[in-house]
Amino acid sequence: MLNAIRQAALSAMEAGNPVAVMYGEVTKTNPLEVNVDQRFTIDADFLIVPESLTRLEIDLRHSHIMTAGTAEEALTQPIVIRPGLQAGDHVVLLRMQGGQKYLILDKVVSA
Predict the structure, then answer these.
(1) In whole angstroms, what is the distance from residue 28 CA to residue 88 CA?
(2) How far apart are CA 8 and CA 6, in angstroms?
(3) Collapsing DSSP states into helix, strand and coil, what is residue 74?
(4) Which of 38, 45, 8 is nearest to 23 (CA)?
């Protein structure tokens, strides 16, 4: 009886598409698209992107007076701390149970 229950539970999990690890490549960034294992493409509606993979810029605008003269200079460009996902980036994904959503875990930097 116990073995029958275990087998039924295993069959139910397999049928429900439990979480699976997959690899993909970012093909577009706006809107975001990821090609998974060169088999299919997932668009932004089905992707969950953590904050650590989004673009982060810091606006450090300031001005100062040069000591050698009276000219005032300003730093006006924001500094990019994190570039976010770019086309060509390789990523590791988790397919959520049921296969409807994919969580991008991180970028893959070496194979």
Answers:
(1) 8
(2) 5
(3) strand
(4) 38
User: What structural domains and CATH numbers belong to the chain?
Assistant: 19-107 (2.40.50)
Q: At 20, is the pLDDT very low, low, confident or very high (cuts 50, 70, 90)?
A: confident
Extract the tokens encoding 60.
């450090």
CB atoms within 10 A of CB 109: 7
Q: Which residues contact 72 (CB under 8 A, 6 or more apart)?
A: 63, 64, 65, 66
Strands 47-48 and 72-75: unpaired
Residue 38 near residue 91 (C-beta atoms within 8 A): no
Phi and psi (nearest 5°) for 100? -95, -25
pTM: 0.69
Kindly state the tokens that stand for 84.
């976010």
